[in-house]
Design brief:
Length: about 230
């Protein structure tokens, strides 16, 4: 494996609604195809020796969408959990969730917890799904946790970034090497803002349901071709 090969890839899975309109499919069909694409992408990451995959499933801003669309997303989320739980024993994938899960119903919260526990010791690939997640909210939550510790435990003030980072989600994971966003938009949309400080960014015109092995492989090869300086020479 090349030294510059990414260990941790993040994906903003954008373009489902436009894909539905372009192909004259229902929105539900587009999201179902998008879920299939995610499942394929998980297996493709394993083939390409990616050890950490973080995906943007549902943002804190997505609640402003129509009730019908949100109901589709919740149904597919529930279906994904059921399928992942049923396959947990046979798969070597660790699945984790980040974001404010308290807004979801009791059933979904129990399933996310169960799935995390069932897959906790799997080590071929770690999949992190960001649901009801916002990058700014994550940083604010981390600051609040730090201040609580500072007041309650009389801990020392922060001296280095890693002292603060332990309050963030997945702080013990490798940095995100590569971010891929499908759908043609060129913005971060409040996703993993702290974690993307020195991440390589690739924006694709293809919609998420059309994302495939070749596009992922091309993105990784583009990443490998870049010289990462991290602010230095």
């Amino acid at each position: 494996m090349t030294i510059n090969h990414p260990k941790h890839v993040a994906i903003i899975m954008d373009g489902n609604r436009r894909w539905a309109k372009i192909n004259n499919y229902s929105l539900l069909k587009a999201y179902e195809k998008g879920l299939e694409t995610l499942q394929d992408t998980i297996h493709n990451c394993i083939k390409l020796k990616i050890y950490y995959l973080t995906v943007f499933g549902f943002s804190t801003e997505n609640w402003s969408r129509s009730k019908k669309e949100i109901s589709y997303l919740m149904k597919l989320f529930n279906d994904f959990l059921d399928k992942a739980i049923s396959e947990a024993e046979s798969n070597e994938i660790s699945i984790k969730f980040i974001g404010d899960l308290d807004v979801f119903g009791k059933q979904i919260k129990e399933k996310t917890s169960l799935l995390t526990n069932l897959t906790n010791k799997k080590n071929t690939l770690t999949l992190t799904i960001a649901v009801n997640y916002g990058g700014q909210q994550e940083i604010l939550t981390a600051v609040k946790k730090y201040l609580v510790d500072l007041l309650d435990k009389n801990i020392r003030t922060l001296k280095k970034l890693t002292d603060f980072e332990k309050y963030l989600f997945n702080y013990n994971f490798p940095n995100i090497d590569l971010l891929i966003r499908t759908g043609g938009e060129k913005r971060l949309s409040n996703f993993m803002l702290w974690h993307l400080a020195y991440t390589e960014l690739i924006f694709l015109n293809e919609m998420w349901p059309d994302f495939n092995f070749n596009l992922l492989d091309d993105a990784i090869n583009e990443f490998i071709s870049r010289k990462r300086k991290f602010g230095g020479m």
